[in-house]
Amino acid sequence: MDRLWTPWRYQYVTSGVADDGCIFCQKPADSDDRANLIVHRAERNFVLLNLFPYNSGHLMIAPYEHTGTLEACAQETAAELFELARRCEAILRREYRAQGVNLGMNIGAVAGAGVAGHIHMHVVPRWTGDANFMSVTGETRVLPEDLHTTWARMRAAFGD
Fold it and tell me: Which residue in the list 40, 58, 66, 120 is annotated as catalytic?
């Protein structure tokens, strides 16, 4: 395993995430897309892998603009965000043979937003029977693909 990816593995196991500011502002400011799990950069938004995925291929779309509500988001940014959601859906259906896709945004802490100050949309591929006993009773996710492999696959699918 590439040494670059090792901290994610331990971070995931320990669930230790540093609170050093907004991750959706920090990640695109850094040029190392691989280390930051960014699979695509558009004009106003970027697409990245979720560090704690529900399923393999779990993507997030976030604007570069730091805003906590969809209402405060520029119209052009919101339009591009939803166009990227369409593109992500198509890629997940093609690359992962997803039978369905969940799109979701939790806006505000009381709505369950893990990063309440910066909106982002989750794009989660789904398949019949993907909620097995491990997820339901063990509060554990079993992923058939590591993040490094998912990143390479998604980056290639976006053509970046």
Answer: 120
